[in-house]
Design brief:
The protein is mainly beta and 296 residues long. It has one domain: Porin, CATH 2.40.160.40. It contains two helices and 17 strands. Strands 1-2-3-5-6-7-8-10-11-14-15-17 form a twelve-stranded antiparallel barrel. A hairpin with a 2-residue loop joins strand 7 and strand 8. The protein is globular, with a radius of gyration of 20 Å. The N terminus is likely disordered.
Length: 296
């Protein structure tokens, strides 16, 4: 995360001599989340998304185990045409597992590489408002290595940084802009098809809606709702207990542009309703994202 922040700061000083102003090329100062912004030809974006979370499964004093996770997604995207965007995301994941006996194990490594493409299906620009509908598709590769503990044993699946699964993804995005107000909705489905481990994640469906008020060009206030439905994970014996289910998260956020073409977003999402399979719980999720744009 520090490396990407440093690159963004350095680019603010040297970029103007080599690259054009990205915001000037887009003609749009709206601060948006990564993946739902307006596209303009020739934009190159470097991004970093960091999330902190804790989740647990099992019954207290019986089989409960919890995981503390810090996930950093390093991204690079390019827009060769005003309707197309291509993105590469590489996660670096740190996990700490605590068992019912209070024993801890931790591991850090690369997660599953994600290659994705976004295509603008429809865009309407009026004097007072704009609408954008996009379709996206991608594939997550099981690039994460199988980590081992200091004693030479393979680390538990719960702390492996990658899922070990080939996962195609499909998504649909809608964005609405009207003056200082904007709204973004994204839908995504994950279809795990094959895993190199004995365990495979379940089918996942995700939906996010975010409203935004941007009183000035350098700051925007946001509020989001995140819905998730995931079927139970499976192994050679069938469905894995205490996995999968439904969850709803709500939370506020703020996006800032401290320097031209560089923005940072802070968001907190709290679980407000859930219908998990078995006994599970999740903590508040803390989100920090940064991005820097160049116009090539």
């Amino acid at each position: 995360m520090r490396l990407w922040l440093l690159l963004g700061v350095l680019a603010s000083f040297i970029g103007r001599d080599v690259f054009a102003c990205a915001i000037c090329s887009a003609g749009d100062p709206t601060l948006t989340s990564i993946g739902v912004e307006r596209l303009f030809q020739g934009r190159l974006r470097a991004s970093s998304i960091v999330e902190f979370r804790n989740y647990s499964q099992g019954v207290n004093a019986v089989d409960r185990q919890s995981v503390d996770e810090i996930r950093t997604d390093l991204g690079l995207s390019y827009v060769p045409h005003r309707r197309w965007a291509f993105t590469l995301m590489l996660p670096v994941v740190h996990k700490k597992l605590t068992t019912v006996s209070e024993r801890t194990q931790s591991a850090t490594g690369l997660g599953d590489l994600w290659l994705a493409a976004r295509f603008v299906l429809w865009q309407q620009d009026n004097r007072s408002s704009s609408h954008i509908v996009s379709f996206s598709g991608g594939l997550r590769f099981p690039t994460g290595p199988e980590l081992k503990l200091p004693n030479g044993h393979v680390a538990p699946h719960e702390i492996q940084p990658g899922t070990g699964t080939w996962t195609p993804t499909l998504g649909l995005q809608y964005a609405y802009f009207r003056g200082k107000l904007s709204m973004f909705t994204t839908l995504r489905s994950d279809f795990p098809v094959h895993s190199k481990y004995d365990e495979r994640d379940g089918l996942g469906m995700f939906a996010t809606t975010m409203g935004q008020f941007q009183p000035w060009t350098w700051i925007a206030l946001q509020a989001s709702a995140d819905f998730r439905y995931v079927t139970s994970a499976v192994d050679y014996a069938g469905n894995i207990p205490n996995s999968g289910g439904i969850a709803l998260f709500l939370g506020p956020g703020v996006a800032l542009m401290p320097i031209t073409d560089f923005f940072v977003r802070f968001m907190v999402r709290a679980p407000v309703w859930s219908a998990y399979n078995g006994t599970q719980s999740e903590s508040v999720v803390y989100h920090i994202s940064m991005a820097y744009d160049w116009a090539l």
